[in-house]
Amino acid sequence: MTDGRTVEVRAPDHGTRSTARFRSDIISWVGDSEPEYPGIGTMMRLIDGIMQRIQPKFMEYEIRDRTKAMVACYPGGGSQYVKHVDNPLKDGRLLTCIYYLNKDWDCEKHGGMLKIYPTNNKNVACIEPVMDRIIIFWSDRRNPHEVLPSHQPRYAVTTWYFDAAERKEAQRRKVEELTRSQQLSRNPASSQSVVADDSILTISQSEIDAVSGSSQSNAGSKLSNQSEVRSNAS
Description:
By secondary structure, the protein is of the alpha+beta class. It has helices spanning 38-54, 107-110, 164-186, 188-191, 205-212; strands at 2-3, 10-11, 15-16, 26-30, 61-66, 69-74, 79-84, 93-100, 114-116, 125-127, 134-138, 145-150, 154-163, 221-222, 229-231. Strand 9 (114-116) and strand 10 (125-127) form a beta hairpin. The longest helix is centred in the C-terminal third of the chain and has 23 residues, at 164-186. The chain is globular and about 55 Å long. The two termini are 37 Å apart.
């Protein structure tokens, strides 16, 4: 497993900002057909089935693909993930699906509460990461959320389902960025006029790769029955 730290963005005058304080889990990406982890494949197919069952409640979106499963461990000792948005940059992720693996979890003793802050109302959802619980919520700015400090090892498996139109646009932007980067590398003088965004992206490099397809060719797995799932906000 690797550190689940967010992307570091370099700015010309400010160097590189550290991101370790934002996120302190460790992660591993697992596909749905890896023989070493048959349980992950079974879980992902079950979630595909849930997505198919709830599709009548949605009409506006077209969900075709999903990421690999991100297996995350908060190792305890106050490990956490501060308030963030999974998809702040329109990378294609529409729905976040989290399955918890924590037997006999007690947030009063162990911490690790997931808190979701929906932007369409003032209610805050406080969710205990108890064993065999699955939650699904919008990945974009509609649902900022955080993981409070965990004092015991805390496990979760997350997958993201893509909206086809937004993902296609994200891939187009990625190609443009790569092309522009190549052009600048051939003309160093022109690169000095480019000002980098001095911000920290709340999206992991593996997640960016999953969207762009640059290093995870199988990240966007087809839903298990190969049918398209269409959805819309309810």
